[in-house]
Specification:
Layout (H helix, E strand, L loop, with lengths): L1 H12 L7 H27 L9 H21 L10
Length: 87
């Protein structure tokens, strides 16, 4: 992705400075090309389990609730064994 984005930016923008529209146009095009280059690779990584996909925040709340339930069970069965900090 970086190779494609930076290469496209240098190819289109060349010596353009930040005050020139060519700089900003080449930046937008190069970042879009970088996204298109990285997208299929990311899909493959997610498909094969190398990388995790985006998750709903609800999933993380369910994990948090499950963890609190486990702490409550541990406190009931082993009093004083589990210490929690209040935030």
């Amino acid at each position: 992705m970086e190779f494609v984005a930076i290469g496209t930016d240098l190819w289109l923008g060349g010596d353009a400075t930040m005050g020139e529209p060519l700089f900003w146009m080449s930046l937008a095009v190069s970042l879009s090309c970088g996204l298109l280059a990285a997208y299929p690779v990311n899909l493959l990584l997610i498909h094969y389990g190398v990388k995790g996909g985006l998750h709903s925040p609800k999933c993380h709340m369910d994990d948090h609730r499950r963890g609190l339930q486990l702490i409550n069970i541990a406190e009931k069965t082993l009093p004083g064994a589990v210490t929690t900090q209040a935030t």
